[in-house]
Amino acid sequence: MALNSRGVAFHQRREFLRRGAALSMAGVATPWALNLAATGEAAAATSVGDYKALVCVFLYGGNDYGNTLVPCDDANYAAYQAIRTGIVLPRETLLPLAPSVALPSGRQMAFAPEWSGLKELFDAGRMGVLLNVGTLMQPTTRAQYNMRSVPLPPKLFSHNDQQSVWQSSLPEGATSGWGGRLGDLFLSSNARTTFTCINVSGNAVFMSGQTAVQYQVGSGGAVALSAAKSPVYGSPACAEALRVVTMATGTHLFESELATMMTRAFEAESQLSTALAGAAPLTTAFDAANPLAMQLKMVARMISVRSALGARRQVFFVSLGGFDLHDFLPQQHPGLLAKVSSAVKSFHDATVELGVANSVTSFTASDFGRTLSSNGDGSDHGWGSHHIVVGGAVKGGRFHGILPATAVNGPDDVGQGRLLPTTSVDQFGAALATWFGVPATDLPLVFPNIGHFDANALSLFA
User: Which pTM was predicted?
Assistant: First the structure.
């Protein structure tokens, strides 16, 4: 087996991921037998000696980009005001940005007033804004879109489908996401592979790998198997029966795999609970009434015990819902933005407290953007959107990508202000993955469409 200079078994890793990715891209669910067999294949990875973490903050429902990042120069604010009838943010409430690299044509942009905490990070050079990113199969012009002459993401403007493409680069039904596939490449760098891909908000394809299994925790810590902690139907025998399962010694594949899974669950819960119990409490304040803040606090706590968990590379997933605002956008969107700003700002402050700000990068993602045009009281499903990337290693205080025109049916949209993305999710992910330590030759293992794009188009990190 060919090894690299660090003794990494690249051939074995590539072959396993190639087989799984080929099945997924063919539109076939990876057979369960193959997933089970993965536990018997070594998850070779790039050998690393430092610590890095990526944190995906997913905004379910499709965040309204038009009232998040707002034009504030005279000409473009006037255009914005005319287009967004009924949902316009007053100009005097906006938070103007002074990027380190000026935008072209004298254009000026501002954050919504609820993003004061994130403006602090932008001004401090700890946060960058990524412009007009979205799902693409290959670079696409407006003419190509109108003629349907190039492959397009499946079922554009559909929540479930675009969530899947954002999180996996594959259609709905995909069995792995690019967060999990990143985890696949680094499993052997972690002493306990269970703590490689961690989901604090339930379940998401983003966190599933071909070999990496997403470990789900709650905002309060490890989630115990309740039947093992307390009697079921008043019978302590049930709890004991669950533990007996972990001692199965049969040769049947399903029996063996069930025993492996149960053992992993018991051990992970014990290891994480013990590590967190011995950790010093964070002094950074998190809003206990903000569910996103509490998820990110849990991420910070897990990062604080990374050494006890034997972790050198970790991918985390947190989320906030409620962004599908066809109605009541002026009433509900500000509160959602306030939650994002407070939570992400507190999380970054916690990484500073822990001394790992340069080693942790968080970023937002969402189903899609929304229409720039108003439907009277909200906005409708769109395509491209603006996102943020936060961390000590980020080239902050600047915009990355191409700022679209403030226009409906202009050069940058496909109708109603639905932005045609000028940066693909794969390019965004490739920039994050490269910082994470993935070599250029392995990017196609994580992003199956990256060969159609310039993988070096974004310079997000110093």
Answer: 0.87
